[in-house]
Design brief:
about 350 residues; alpha+beta; Gyrase A, domain 2; RNA Polymerase Alpha Subunit, Chain A, domain 2; DNA polymerase, domain 1; 3 domains; four-stranded antiparallel beta sheet; about 35% helix; about 30% strand
Amino acid sequence: MNKIKVTPYMPTELEVKKIDENSAQVIAYPFEYGFAITLAHPLRRLLFSSSVGYAPIGLRIEGVSHEFDSIRGMLEDVAFFIMNLKNIRFKINDENSNRVVVDYTFNGPKELKGEDLQNADISVVNPDTYLATLNEDAELNFSIIIEKGIGYVASEDIRDTLEEGYIALDAFFTPVRKAVYEIEKVLVEDNPNYEKIVFTIETDGQIDPIEAFKNSIIAMNSQLSVFNKIMDTDFIANKEAKDNTSVISKLLDSIETLKLSVRSSNCLERAGLKYIGELAIMSESELKAIKNLGKKSLDEIVEKMKEIEFPVGMEFDEDTLKVLSKKIEELKSKEEEE
């Protein structure tokens, strides 16, 4: 028999298992039924979108003007060279630097791999990755811009940030290669309907998998923090006051802003009505009672008030009604004095 609760069960158990250098599992339990997937799915998305990584965003090759060109003495065309370059995972050695430009010169014969691109500014986390093959007559001079970032950025969005002569590259910053979760049943006090989250995270080596998971937790907490304001009673009171002020301001606009027909405008003016708020607080029967206001004019006024989302006969709270009436009275008194 299910017990009646007033708060959801708080998970208490956390296990972290390192599978290898770039893989790990994070296990948490027990969660109320349905709570596990509610938390696991956004965390998985944040693992891919919020983890910081590095990627080449621009390439300049001496003697090459576009990505469909070829290089004398190199087995690969430029397009294949770029594809291979994107497979190499870099890491800027200076943690305070967001961008570095690295220059290279190679002479053949030589088979280029990721390890050949390492220097004082950058490291390559997959040094055995193939890049290109040069024959004995080849000379290859090129520069790469390595950038720090998150997620994926298309080359079209990068092109304008590069100097002339650079080929813009699609940037795959995310260092997370795999992020999957399983929801398992777990027994709590003879109840088999509690849940366990088993996360498996794999990175490319630019970041530790546990560090990537920590980053996703930080990102989730920071995104949710905006809702903390709702716990602040002063914030709610101030927000309501601002909204109320905005409503009253619109209600104090002149009836002329409705752009009514001449006949309708004249009827309202003779009745001493000058502000939209005066129409909003009137009932339709009160409006109909205005002298010489025909059905056509009445329908026109009702329709116009609906369009601006202040229908005739609109209900206001007592405080708003008092403030509105006072403001209208003050405006009319000021006009009479002038």
